[in-house]
Amino acid sequence: MDASLEKKIADPTLAEMGKNLKEAMKMLEDSQRRTEEENGKKLLSGDIPGPLQGRIQNIGEQGHISLLGHSLGAYISTLDKEKLRKLTTRILSDTTLWLCRIFRYENGCAYFHEEEREGLAKICRLAIHSRYEDFVVDGFNVLYNRKPVLYLSAAARPGLGQYLCNQLGLPFPCLCRVPCNTVFGSQHQMDVAFLEKLIKDDIERGKLPLLLVANAGTAAVGHTDKIGRLKELCEQYGIWLHVEGVNLATLALGYVSSSVLAATKCDSMTLTPGPWLGLPAVPAVTLYKHDDPALTLVSGLTSNKPADKLRALPLWLSLQYLGLDGIVERIKHACQLSQRLQESLKKVNHIKILVEDELSSPVVVFRFFQELPGSDPGLNAIPAPSAAASAVGRERHSCDALNRWLGEQLKQLVPMSGLTVMDLEVEGTCVRFSPLMTAAVLGTRGEDVDQLVACVQSKLPVLTCTLQLREEFKQEVEATAGLLYVDDPNWPGIGVVRYEHANDDKSSLKLDPEGEKIHAGLLKKLNELESDLTFKMGPEYKSMKSCIYIGMASDDIDISELVETIAVTAREIEEDSRLLENMTEVVRKGIQEAQVQLQKANEERLLEEGVLRQIPVVGSVLNWFSPVQASQKGRTFNLTAGSLESTEHTYVYKVQGSGVTPPQTPTGTRTKQRLPGQKPFKRSLRGSDAISETSSVGHIEDLEKMEQSSGGQEASEANSHERHPEAPAPPEAEPPGALQDGAQGLQDDRPQVEEPESLR
């Protein structure tokens, strides 16, 4: 009688709500059909003034329905208390029934919560009240006499155990972390045999095994525990079994793997339909089975407040809008994206896929690796050329850095894929593709998966080439004087190098201003070469000293030329800096010496001319009767020699002295002849089978002939400049003596010309 009355009262309210929803949907459809007059694009967020204008993502109609549920809940809360109670009860019961049918959880109850871990904390409270009958009266004393134990997998979400202890007020020793398999099965599955041993040990110590958290899709790689075997173990020892994970979404599909299907027999499970279906602001749901409503009320799983029941309203509206077919289609589409990426990556070399079940896994985790010759690529994930532990560790870090770079590049190139980069304890750095959590929100399509595979294939040559050149670069740097190889495990490029100048304190880890100045100039010089390599400057991995970071190599690079260029350029910068410092000191001393000599010259002039000539009127009369024949004396400063010289020769012969020829700038020991259009550091002849030894030798001889011909032309031009431009060429019949006299005359009549720079 009460149920029929409640239905009669609630039905008019629901009918009115449905009418209003239809009007709201019509308004939403009309707003989406409108187009902007300027660019013709669809209005995704409406005309929202302020900082939110143009920044709200495309949430779709189902997203608008979910957001509308929050506003509608605020209006519903203003109804009469009796109508509000009946309406909220109907919404809660309908939503619970739909979720239990969709995800195959029969006769279950639902708790809706905003925080994803909150449902598990409430389940733990329910388990404590169920196992400790006097807990309401005695409280902590009951737990102290027999401590509860919560079992979590080593592959569980980080921070889950700490969150439960903080919410329940339990000490951390109440947590028991169960290791994963090490010999048989997946390395991300809970070791059932070891768990049983832990349970027996806890019972012998007087503890109470309370709750076990299993994973149907671990947070890292999406692997599923052996839930069927764990359920048998929990029934044997009276332990509450809770299951969570992304793979629970596949329960809505027609085909479900046996390991995930076993989760329908557990005591409770947590679902996150918001990310799965692309619904914003939708609460998470914890489904559970329990017969005592009093304990569920004490635990906080049920509430008599209408506001708590209205949490289900956004999900209630969204489920009605999508329908069963729409829900299944979204989850099925995400699983198909995973299968598509998995099948495509199988055909790509140097890519290892970490997947548990190739038929139904909705998560794909992959990483780049280099196969060792003569080994099984499925067992070899570390590109180590030797079996030494240090070499293996170094190559492991190098491969992790490359995978981190690969993941970041793929995220930028294909943002619709929703990739994440993560670090695993055994495998190292990997890239994860989980469309169940991202595809519905980002709108990932099959074309995005194909683009992702194409980007992976385009980056593989860069990764393999860089990995092959790292060891060669290290050996070249260690064999070059003045350079120090810096081992930075987080840098994905060819390597890191630091130039050690003369005043470098190798034991200090502080900032070196002189070294920073040299490296800044070196970075500028390297970037001016316009090579395919990228250079950056930054602090060393373990200190504050500046270093040069060399990026990824997309082609075969001449490492020896690269290292030699870095060493020679850095040495030139250091010598130029020291030359400037020495020149500053020489100029300062020259100025002081010139001041002393000028003062001495003034004193000598005063003694030579006499005191009377210094008097203004008398001096003019004396200078008129007896002028002073004083020679012009001056000083010139020779920067090359660093000394003061007299200018008397300049005034007498009307020509400046040639001085001392400055030394040449030091250059590299080897100068590579490049072909037209060839960029620096390219090794053009390496690995070319089409060029024989004869053609290679002939190519080298051609280069030598080009050098000789260019040198001969420079010498002839220099000889032509030695002759006077106005003097005609001497005839062949003229005697040698006349030629010598003519040359001597030319030498006496014109000033001496400094030799051209090419003849030095």
TrEMBL record:
| Cofactor(s) the protein needs | pyridoxal 5'-phosphate
Positions of the PDXDC1-like third domain: 473-578
Which residue intervals define the domain PDXDC1/PDXD2 second in the entry? 361-467
Stretches the record annotates as Disordered: 29-49, 656-760
Report keywords, A-Z. Decarboxylase, Lyase, Pyridoxal phosphate
Family per UniProt?
Answer: Belongs to the group II decarboxylase family.
Q: Mind telling me what this protein is named? A: Pyridoxal-dependent decarboxylase domain-containing protein 1
Q: Which gene encodes it?
A: PDXDC1
